[in-house]
Amino acid sequence: MDKITTSIITIGDELLIGQTIDTNSAWIAQQLNAIGIWVHRRVAIGDIKEDIMEAMAKEAAVSDIVLITGGLGPTADDITKPTLCEYFNTHLVQNEVALKNVLHIFESRGLPLLQRNIDQSMVPEACTVIDNMRGTAPGMWFEKEGKIYVSMPGVPHEMQGMMENYVLPQLAQHFRTPSVVHQTLVTSGMGESFVAERLVAFETKLPAHIKLAYLPSYSLLKLRLTAFGDDKLTTAAELSILFHEMKEILLDITVTDQDIVISDVVGRLLLEKGKTMGTAESCTGGYISSAITAIPGSSAYFKGSAVTYANEMKMKLLGVKKETLEAHGAVSEATVREMLAGALKLLEVDYAIAVSGIMGPDGGTPEKPVGTVWIAVGDATKAVTVKYQLRYDRERNIQMTAVYAMNELRKLILE
Amino acid sequence: MDKITTSIITIGDELLIGQTIDTNSAWIAQQLNAIGIWVHRRVAIGDIKEDIMEAMAKEAAVSDIVLITGGLGPTADDITKPTLCEYFNTHLVQNEVALKNVLHIFESRGLPLLQRNIDQSMVPEACTVIDNMRGTAPGMWFEKEGKIYVSMPGVPHEMQGMMENYVLPQLAQHFRTPSVVHQTLVTSGMGESFVAERLVAFETKLPAHIKLAYLPSYSLLKLRLTAFGDDKLTTAAELSILFHEMKEILLDITVTDQDIVISDVVGRLLLEKGKTMGTAESCTGGYISSAITAIPGSSAYFKGSAVTYANEMKMKLLGVKKETLEAHGAVSEATVREMLAGALKLLEVDYAIAVSGIMGPDGGTPEKPVGTVWIAVGDATKAVTVKYQLRYDRERNIQMTAVYAMNELRKLILE
């Protein structure tokens, strides 16, 4: 069983100065992984000819496939395409299909065409052109000395279209790839080292072709088992037995045995029970609501939210009492209890989440420092409140609060 | 002026299978850039000894600094630390400070200590230990043959603490770095190639040490000028003149001349004018509200949102008429107009945004396909409505809608 290996090269100064976060590599890795191809190196370099040439040669020396993203586009073509020509010892020619595509896009958008847009349809003669259904820059497929090179634009949805329509099917056909199977268990409420302690005996007996990875994700912990094998069904069956064994060991702390986010876990529970939910958010400002509705089909169980950032809105929309705010403050157990009751009534839902806290960097006091947050979850008959003292920056405090709150709701629904 | 160069090596299978998006590299690059150090390569590899050894040697051959993140932690130590020992020809010893830190963390959290936690305080003898104020895994600083190597945990806030408290000050002291100055202009309403066409003469005359980058970001376009020089003040002055020249050329399409997100642009405008805002969101599910409140201090101008995912909530909270929904549907100009009016009244704000659309993947009809979205922005006296037909996936459709809506509000406020 030979492992088919890929290097991903991303071209663009914006990645090296930190202006852009590279989401393409993760997406590509997931897709390749699903067809049994392993990404073993990812390299990011700038728009510099020598660096591109060197990276291509180095990565081709250690990988079967070199996937290149970025460095294309109407203002970036000047470096990447001539470099590809030099590397593959070829020259630029006009591609009819790519030109038609450029013309069509500009016509349908009613935009005048510029020379630099027409130039986008120039491609190295040695390549097979990959159509871009979502933009003007064509993709390019090269083969040289038994290695495959693919150059694609860095715009995520353009690259994804090319991968799905052309690159992935071609690669699957070209290589006889091993089967890779994953199963993921998500746990909460126990630290990585304690979980590892529980799994010592289990891990020891894992065969060499099955690996366990610990992936902490906010307040949750993902445990991913990966198996490699020649036959997909046999490999999946073997993995399944071990996965269930691991699940038994961690049953009391299991959130889900699927690789899904917590908002999806909560949503599936609500769907299953035919119940609805909503949120009353102060410090998270709609982040929880936005996470719940990021899941397709969430309209079946999610009715709405009252984002009450100002105290007057907490009173007006949710019926929080003025006396409560004055006696306990907006960040208090009493306030989130009233927000919860208000949300259940206002949004006419079975379950609600209410949160109020101080996410920073400012706004803390000695009694209620930055990071103080109160969460309430409940339904018509019961309510649970919890307080956290978070220690991160504003963005992460908000994300952590959302995960904690959704996990509390999950537990309450299961009670 | 010698460029000080860094390679970033990230260790961890989770990056190679796409389970985790690498946000550390972007953050590190930004910080290094600010002190004049250039990241010219980023490499991601798995938890494999040979790959780590090889990557360290290769990167040290082309860079002055090798920053390594990941591969540390109570369940991951087994590979990275012994590899570091082999590479630097040293062995593990107990570090007193790191041990005290581990003991302190476990005591303060009331958790029992495990042997694998104690082992986290073992470090290669050849390194200088970097204290971890936010977790149990210590960082490590090595020097070998004139090159600097730093190994840090992959947990973002732990790594960031080490960088800020130790690594960045040490690197700034160690190298005499060139000055790097950036200025960024954000534009809207004109495609990359048309902007480039306007800037042809300007770009042609840019000196070699000043670079212009085009960075499309959702519906906006960022134009970043970067200057390198020996003296910070002279470099900044030279850049400033060119930046203002560029701004003059693009004045009619300029969103902001600062490198800030659109929610921050809107927030600063509101602050300046002493006005307030709120949102009424259907398809974005609180995403716009969450983007606005992600900005520290947003409570000064943001009062709240009604996330009305269900039609009954559009009626109940925002006063959308039943007849309007029946005659035109939830995704219509008439509905967003009524949502806007309802939000202004309910939230008692000066300005509001209202959105309703079909974000996909399901829910489209022949008349209103997936991606149809109506946006309304306005105040007590005027309202502007726009319709978009988006062509992306659910996540991106939501993000695009949010940027479009906030940009429409920005234009309305400036009218």
UniProtKB/TrEMBL annotation, chains A, B:
<dbReference type="InterPro" id="IPR008135">
    <property type="entry name" value="Competence-induced_CinA"/>
</dbReference>
<dbReference type="InterPro" id="IPR050101">
    <property type="entry name" value="CinA"/>
</dbReference>
<dbReference type="Pfam" id="PF02464">
    <property type="entry name" value="CinA"/>
</dbReference>
<protein>
    <recommendedName>
        <fullName>CinA-like protein</fullName>
    </recommendedName>
</protein>
<dbReference type="InterPro" id="IPR041424">
    <property type="entry name" value="CinA_KH"/>
</dbReference>
<dbReference type="InterPro" id="IPR008136">
    <property type="entry name" value="CinA_C"/>
</dbReference>
<dbReference type="InterPro" id="IPR036425">
    <property type="entry name" value="MoaB/Mog-like_dom_sf"/>
</dbReference>
<comment type="similarity">
    <text>Belongs to the CinA family.</text>
</comment>
<feature type="domain" description="MoaB/Mog">
    <location>
        <begin position="7"/>
        <end position="174"/>
    </location>
</feature>
<dbReference type="InterPro" id="IPR036653">
    <property type="entry name" value="CinA-like_C"/>
</dbReference>
<dbReference type="Pfam" id="PF18146">
    <property type="entry name" value="CinA_KH"/>
</dbReference>
<dbReference type="InterPro" id="IPR001453">
    <property type="entry name" value="MoaB/Mog_dom"/>
</dbReference>
<dbReference type="Pfam" id="PF00994">
    <property type="entry name" value="MoCF_biosynth"/>
</dbReference>
